[in-house]
Amino acid sequence: MTWPRLRVADWTETRDTLHMWTQIVGKVRMAYAPPVNHWWHCTLYPGARGLSTSAIPYGETVFTLDFDFLDHRLHIRSSDGRAREVTLEPKSVATFYGETMEALSTLGIEPRIHASPNEVEAAIPFAEDETHFSYDGEAVQRFWRQMLQAQRVLEQFRSEFVGKASPVHFFWGAMDLAYTRFSGRVAPIHPGGAPNCPPWVMQEGYSHELASFGFWPGGGTEGAFYAYAYPEPPGYAERTGRFYDHTLKECLLPYEVAADSADPGATVLEFLRTTYAGAADLGGWDRKALEMSR
Predict the structure, then answer these.
(1) Would the CA dihedral through 103, 27, 58, 109 be positive or negative?
(2) Which residues are within 8 A (CB) of 73 and not within 5 positions of it... i.e. 6 or more apart?
(3) How many angstroms separate the CA atoms of 41 and 32, rounded?
(4) How many angstroms separate the Cα of 59 from the Cα of each of 7, 33, 78, 107, 111?
(5) CA atoms within 13 A on the CB side of 254
(6) Could you give the dihedral angle defined by the CA atoms of residues 229, 230, 234 and 240, in that order, rounded to the nearest 10 degrees?
(7) CA-to-CA distance for 70 and 279, rounded, in angstroms?
(8) CB 115, CB 98: distance < 8 Å
(9) pLDDT (tens digit per residue) in 137-187
(10) For labelling, which of 110, 119, 272, 284 has a CA lying 20 to 30 Å from the CA of 100?
(11) pLDDT for 269-278, tens place per residue?
(12) Residue range 191-220: mean pLDDT, rounded
């Protein structure tokens, strides 16, 4: 499968609009899904046509919200056979929010959500956001296909670990595809600091010692793969030196570096394995107990 190319600068306005749309859909899932540690009940999942909430419980039924980036629709489907859809096209966040809530209401679903974005500096309430209104369908498709490539490699990497680990899933707060491994030990209380996000949210997400990895549409000309450890063990920056970004305090592999290499998947896998080994070795993880023999 070809690794799609997409300059961040060429779709920033669409990216920022899509980010808000995914927050709306993710918050609907969060309103009904039973809580799971580290906010895993809030995420979306890449699939064969876009991003999905997976099944959300509602009374004696379930429903799903699925971004279809091929036909450019948000499909809302209930297990009782009813369905509605919202067209994905240039429109404001306020319009998308109103249409999505109305579509849910016609199915008898009226979620109570915090109707403002998190983890962004300018937290414009969804119903008032006329600032973000761009939708370049081709760019969105390319981003989704980038995520599919990232997912494929992250799933392979995930198969090498037998300890506690997250799914490979899409966090709508920071708009990143993420996967996390845990050492099994409790972590120091996280200081927080994400914009428009209460400290207790970050403290739950980082309650246990971890090494996290992922891909997001930033950090490089065409996005970037990232890796970091919490708490960061002494010497991690030096151990991962060629990848470590001292400004962000995490490791980066620009997407374009991987895509330009002879074997992009192998290049990303090397980055993941190298940065994990640095976190695990310096953090004193029990690697023999936590890893699958290769």
Answers:
(1) negative
(2) 85, 86, 87, 88
(3) 9
(4) 43, 11, 11, 12, 13
(5) 14
(6) 10
(7) 39
(8) no
(9) 999 999 999 999 999 999 999 999 999 999 999 999 999 999 999 999 999
(10) 119
(11) 999 999 999 9
(12) 96
Phi/psi for 82 (5° steps) reads: -85, 155
Helix (H, G, I), strand (E, B) or coil at 205: helix
Section 237-258 average pLDDT: 97
Amino acid letter, residue 84: R
Whether residue 1 is predicted with pLDDT greater than 80 in this model: the reply is no
Tell me the backbone φ, ψ of residue 11, rounded to 5 degrees: -140, 20
Cα distance between residue 2 and residue 292, in whole Å: 29
Radius of gyration of the CA atoms of the chain, in A? 19
Amino acid at 78: S
Which of 220-239 are b and which e, b meaning 16 or more Cβ less than 10 Å from the residue's Cβ?
Answer: bebbbbbbbbbebbeebbeb
